[in-house]
Amino acid sequence: MQIVETGPDDERFPAWCAVWSATQLADHPDEAPRPAGDHVALGRRLTAAGSAMRGTHRAAVAGGTVVGALRLLLPVRDNTSVAYLDVAVHPAHRRRGAGTALLAEGVRLAGAAGRSSLVAEVDEPAAEAAGSAFARHSGWTCDLRETRRDLLLPVDEERLSVLESEAVAASAGYEVLTWRDRTPDALLEDRALLGRRMSTDTPNGDVPVGEEDWDAARVREQETVARDRGRTVLSAGAVRDGRLVAVTDLHVPLAQPQRAHQSGTLVLPGHRGRRLGARVKIAVLRELAADLPEVRRISTYNSDANRPMVAVNEALGFRPAGALSTWSTRLPPGA
Ligand SMILES: CC(C)(COP(=O)(O)OP(=O)(O)OC[C@H]1O[C@@H](n2cnc3c(N)ncnc32)[C@H](O)[C@@H]1OP(=O)(O)O)[C@@H](O)C(=O)NCCC(=O)NCCS
């Protein structure tokens, strides 16, 4: 088996993407896997000028077939001691050492890039996922466990109306705005601050990742990346005295709109306890029902420690549907 470099412009890249599709289909047979175009767009971002993330791809090749895939992500604006690693081996080629070989390559590349910690996420559709057993076997530690919750659409209108009236009553004086794909210019600086806080205020267990450096340009970069990945993003924010103090984003992959992803939701500290989290989420659900009624399901991930967010999600009707764990390892100095 060989480990070779690949990337969006390499002839092996479609096979690299197919490893991910096969992996996702094995874990979630009823869900459309991420389209190859998504991996291509992410890959291009890693070499784009001014990008907050660099990175590289490797393929494990056996007998001329791509059997495994590695993507290494290197933050450049912040968290410059960390490398994020995605590894997958095609289900038909597992337990033959491809995962171990790709992991060793990831460790080598991260060390060469001067990183001292590696972080990886493991999808856990069922209790003993291969990825967790593999990470444990490789000596990594589990730093965070999040529960995936799904909301089936359409949401019961009565439930939504009751929650909405309660939230509106609890947050008098705040205006809720919605937008799609592009944050209004007037809210851009505040949106960047919310991005920064999102990286510190969301319970993150022991994951060795610190505050992210967000500014207006990075918000715009993220919007461009979402567009290039074929996603439309519905957002809602709460405004008080002209300042954005809460936000939520919902990503819909346009080629496969049946399943949307609730991305971050954050309320700034001085404004918590007024049901603004529920209010912005409800505003986005209403936009979704009006603009993209083909969405059947929304998935979201929360640490069980994030009690306020879990309570809002449960009230809206989100129900447990699997888990996501985050693992890390430290590289010895000079690795
Ligand atoms: C995790 C994954 C990459 C492992 O790939 P692989 O090529 O099968 O891994 P290896 O053959 O190198 O396995 C090394 C060791 O990990 C452990 N392991 C791997 N898969 C396991 C499983 N399903 N159950 C129990 N232990 C497992 C074993 O100790 C194994 O050694 P052994 O086969 O001698 O018993 C693969 O199962 C996969 O793609 N899973 C989905 C994506 C994912 O979770 N990635 C993990 C990111 S850290």
Question: How would you describe what is shown here?
Answer:
- Helix content is 34%, strand content 33%.
- It has 2 domains: 2-115, 3-Layer(aba) Sandwich (Aminopeptidase), CATH 3.40.630.30; 149-322, Aminopeptidase (3-Layer(aba) Sandwich).
- The two termini are 23 Å apart.
- Helix 5 crosses helix 8.
- By secondary structure, it is α+β, with helices and mostly antiparallel strands.
- It has 9 helices and 12 strands.
- The protein has a 12-stranded mixed sheet, sandwiched between helices.
- The chain binds coenzyme A.
- Coenzyme A (COA) binds next to strand 4, helix 3, strand 5 and helix 4.
* Helical content band: 25-40%
Unreliable stretches (pLDDT < 50, length at least 5) are none
State Rg: 20 Å
Structural category:
alpha+beta
So, the CATH homologous superfamily of the largest domain? Gcn5-related N-acetyltransferase (GNAT)
Q: Remind me, CATH topology of the largest domain? A: Aminopeptidase
Query: What is the CATH C-level name of the largest domain?
Result: Alpha Beta
Largest sheet: 12 strands, mixed
Strand segment count:
12
